[in-house]
Amino acid sequence: MKPGKISESVLKRSILKQLKLNREKVLAGPEKGQDFAAIKMQEEVCVFSMDPVIGSPEEVGIRAVHVAVNNLVVAGAEPLGILNTILLPEEYKEKHLKQLMKDINQVCQNLNIQILGGHTETTRAVNQAVVTVTGVGRMTKLPVMTSNAKPEQDIVMVKYAAMEGTALIAREKEAQLRTRYSQNFIQNAKDLLNEISILEEASIARDYGVSAMHDARNGGIYGALWELASAADVGILVDLDKIPVRQETVEICEFYDLNPYKLLSGGSLLIVSARGYDLAEMLKAAGLPAVVIGKTTKEQNKKIIREGEAGFLEPPKSDDLYKVL
Q1: Which residues pair with 302 in a beta bridge?
Q2: Which of 81, 239, 89, 97 is nearest to 157 (CA)?
């Protein structure tokens, strides 16, 4: 199989098809386009998420915590804490582990969540740091399900496409990029990693009342749009020119011949709402870039409009990040 997230067809055929047991108290379990689980516990709902992140000690801990927490908040949950499993290559030093844990702890403090425990080891099975974070949250209402998106509703996008991918490339390929770009430009791209939390925007959307939320990561904005539509069995009609992209992303994608709409997009949030324009204004009033990029449709077609011409969205493939890193 190709590196990266498995395809939707493989997910259905080799994973979801094997799962048979359905407990009554499980409100949300393994589903396409959904990155959390929810269990009814008396008066509250416990929400869980889990994701592995691979990378260098300087950034993998930061990303891992945000990924897990982002998956909780799109459900409408309040994040409480995390458990983490850290796998390090044998050649890593204690200083690498210390830096990684320092970053994890700092992000948790910033988000007001608790490190609940975990496991750490060195192993020959990996050649990069692998951090798997399990997020734990709570809520009193039913979770916001990706499958709840309805036809003829607005699709709101918060922040910018390919933020996480842009930051990672700038950090890992700084020497190459300096042959064309200024240090200030590269630093701005690297700093995008500090903007990948969607806790504030998801909290505003939850209180506003929305049909569905989905954070964009692997496969980029195109992948997230596909998963959102597929999970809800709706079509989409999206104006490509309305999808916000930072100039740093445009330049770096041109440098490496990448598609910014297929590049790792942690920090971008898609929201489906019957009153998307009002929600976008509310988010902007809170200092969060937001725009309506399209709508859901009754048809099953997933259409992208570019310069007035309609094309069809393809199922997500390997993230463009793998072409570079």
Answers
A1: 236
A2: 239
The pLDDT tens digits for 260-301 are: 999 999 999 999 999 999 999 999 999 999 999 999 999 889
**pLDDT tens column, 139-156:** 999 999 999 999 999 999
Give the integer Cα–Cα distance in Å for 58 and 98: 10
209-219: pLDDT as tens digits: 999 999 999 99
According to the model, what pLDDT value does residue 191 have? 97
d(CA 144, CA 142): 7
Q: Which amino acid appears at position 43 of this protein? A: E
* DSSP assigned state of 2: -
Would you state the structure tokens that stand for residue 283, as one six-digit string?
């988010």
**CA neighbor of 33 nearest in space, from 212, 296, 275:** 212
Q: Which residue has the tokens 């700092």?
A: 106
Task: List the structure tokens of 83.
Answer: 């458990």
Q: Encoding tokens for residue 84?
A: 């983490």
User: Distance from first CA to last CA of the chain, Å, rounded?
Assistant: 17
The one-character DSSP state at 211 is S
Cα-based distances in Å from 131 to 64, 67, 84, 97, 283: 6, 11, 7, 11, 32
**No. of H helices and E strands in the chain?**
10, 13
Percent helix, strand, coil in the chain (nearest 5)? 40, 25, 35
Backbone angles phi, psi at 263, to 5 degrees: -110, 140
Q: In this structure, what DSSP letter does residue 28 have? A: E
- Decide if 51 contacts 64 (C-beta within 8 A): yes
Cα separations in angstroms, 77 against 81, 203, 300: 12, 8, 30
Cα dihedral 158, 162, 168, 169 sign? negative
pLDDT at position 4 over 70: no
Q: Are strands 235-239 and 302-306 parallel, antiparallel or unpaired?
A: parallel
How far is residue 40's CA from residue 46's CA, in Å, rounded to a whole number?
Answer: 6
